[in-house]
Amino acid sequence: MIKNSEIKNRNYGIDLLRIVTMLMIVNLHVLGHGGILDSDKLYFLSTKFNIVWLIEIVSYVAVNCYALISGFIGIESKHKYSNIILLWLRVAFYSILIYLIACKCGVVEYDYNTFITYCFPVLNTKYWYFTAYFCLFFFMPILNVGLQNLKYEQLRNAIIMIIIVVSILPFIYAGDVFHCKNGYSFVWLMVLYLIGGFIGKYNLNIKFSKILMLLLFIVCVALEFESLYLTNYMKLKGVENFKYTLVSYTSPTMLLSGIALLVLFSKLKLGFLGKIISFLSPLCFSVYLIHEHKVIRNKYIAGQFERFLDYPTKEMVISIAITVISIFCIGIFIDFFRECLFKILRLKKLFSFIDKN
């Protein structure tokens, strides 16, 4: 094995994956929070059911990809505590600002206790992914030491066993055996970080072709779709507690599909598009922070898109796509000004002293 001892040139394919996965995350929320997936209008076996759930399943891998990227990049990066402070400030900025603007505009009524919860988004789990990532961040130096010092065989065997324990066994048992909360936890993010770091350290991404990874992703999606069909069929038969589903962050196929996309995108050569992609990529996380803010979600997303099911199939798909892209673009546009503000305040330089020791 060739150890990746030198810092790679910026991988614009990974930046593109960040953009694509954020679009997927927005799509998940439009379909889920938006009321489409749970609508009585969405009939099992109908064309719209197939299309909507196919889009949902393709997008479901997004969270896994984000955490895999953290490991893939993190194994080569200097661990800076100023980064988590700056990220926390970004989260708090949107958490507080959106709430205060909503109060000022009469969207919600101001409440002091509620305001305090928005001032401490991590402690109050305003954004589950950031809360999990915040915890993971402080384990990263320890994880990196293990990734950097263990031999290839030791890492490979350890990761295989971890996957068996937290992914395969829970699927076989059809339950959250080790309390990973079906992927909504820092434990699962830590597993993904290790896998991403392992791939990055040994350049495993260069050993597999793009076509092979695309085929692997398609096969995984097909299996997950079949799993969805089986679950719904069992419900029709009166089996309400059927839990053998692959549509879960921790399922083996969802893990494989995330790895497939990581490898696939890491091999892309984007040429002149690289600069545009590298500009957009750092702003993507704020798209999540803005549209998933409780006020925005409850007032402007929850149940708002069920009406798309009344449209002809083609118009329904177009409406979903336009909504997802619009939310993404608005988030990027807003965060551009937030980024300019942070630069004017020179926050990065202000907190750089933390990393000097």
Automatic annotation (TrEMBL):
Keywords: Acyltransferase, Membrane, Transferase, Transmembrane, Transmembrane helix. Residues 11-330 form the Acyltransferase domain. InterPro entries: Acyl_transf_3_dom (IPR002656). It comes from the Bacteria. GO terms for molecular function: acyltransferase activity, transferring groups other than amino-acyl groups. The chain crosses the membrane at residues 12-31, 51-75, 87-107, 127-146, 158-174, 186-204, 211-230, 242-265, 272-290, 316-337. Signal peptide: none annotated. This is Acyltransferase family protein. It comes from Parvimonas micra.
